[in-house]
Amino acid sequence: MPKSRIRKKADFTPPPAKATTIKLTNRSWVAPVMLALFAIGLVWIVVFYVTDGTMPVESIRNWNIVVGFGFIAAGFGVSTQWK
Fold first, then answer.
1. d(CA 28, CA 39)
2. Helix, strand, coil percentages, rounded to 5, for the chain
3. What is the pLDDT of residues 7-18, one digit of tens each?
4. Cα distances (Å, whole numbers) of residue 50 to 13, 35, 59
């Protein structure tokens, strides 16, 4: 019976690495602005409830809640820029 030939496998050589440059932008402003908008929105709503609607802006009455949540939503919008 004939012997089978031993196959030699070629050593694996990985393809050459592509020289990619990662462009990093300075986004150090995102976290402070995001947290500030969250805090402003929270404080706006708390002040509205604590003062029975006389502050922060008395003339818009219950729309103060919408303004507070608007600040919070803007904070979430800014958070999408965080990397």
1. 18
2. 50, 0, 50
3. 777 777 888 888
4. 69, 22, 16
